[in-house]
Amino acid sequence: MELVGVLIAAALVAGTPLLLAGLGLLVTERAGVVNLGAEGMMLGGAFAAFAAGHASGQPWIGFTAGIAVGTVMGALFGLFALTLRANQYASGLAITLLATGLSAHVGKAWIGTPLPWAVAPLLDRLGDVPLIGPALLSQTAPVYFAVIACATIAIGLEKSRAGLVLRAIGESPQAAYRCGLPVSASRWLAVLFGGAMCGLAGAFVALVCTPTWSEAMVGGRGWIALALTTIATWRPWRLLAGAYLVGAVTIVQFHLQSRGVPIASQWLAMLPYLATILVLVLISRRPDWIRRNMPAALGRQFVAD
């Protein structure tokens, strides 16, 4: 039972950055904007969080720095994709390429450097409760924040006026504009929120998942989060289930490696990505189902009449 609790806790940790980034992308795409820069924004947030956290010795400063850098990168993406009306796909890829090269360059001096501290669990005194303690009550604050954010976004999109406005803009920005809705401002806010969440996801990777700086340490999580958004058909609760499922697969492959299973470690490390690709292939066999659920104006530029 103790091992089960530890594995569940590890799966939640592995799935949290996917959920955080996925929620940011979900809100952005609900506004009709495609952001392929999630990987880069996570990398920027990861480096900023690691550097600020290492220098200050304070986890909250690291998380704040990660969110700030993610937001700035979101603003840069918004400048290209929304203000200058550049191609959204190319703009996002440019952000990822920029962040990949820049983080590798400025992070050379930090490679292999561990954090001198660990982020403390939020409910540390309850961690000794059998099974539930190690699995659910010994997590850091961002894990709980991710679940709360998921619930808030799910309810907000369905019940609040702001959520209805966002969904209307994602379906038809021209019609929303003619009804007097703030299309450009809403899209900008969605993009900034997406950048902030990706920055927080990167900070979580750097400060909690692998608190030692290494080049490209995000390891494709941004792309997985982007795929999970589609797999979840832009529904927050489905995204949460998918993120933690991939997190569980990730931890299982680590556990199999530690048990000495006679399978090459490279094949085991591929499991989370193979699972994501397999699900994408399966749902791609029903394109009509995806079209019914995706925002109708996704990836389209908006020009005011």
Task: Based on the model shown, name its key terms.
single chain, 305 residues, mainly alpha, ABC transporter involved in vitamin B12 uptake, BtuC
Give the gist of this structure.
The protein is mostly helical. Helices cover 72% and strands 0% of the residues. The radius of gyration is 19 Å and the shape is globular.
If you had to describe this structure to a student in words, what would you say it looks like?
It is a single chain. With 305 residues, this protein is mostly helical. Helix content is 72%, strand content 0%. It contains 14 helices and no strands. The protein has helices at residues 2-30, 38-56, 59-83, 88-106, 132-136, 141-159, 161-171, 173-178, 183-209, 221-231, 236-258, 265-269, 271-284, 287-293. The protein is globular and about 60 Å long. The mean pLDDT is 89.
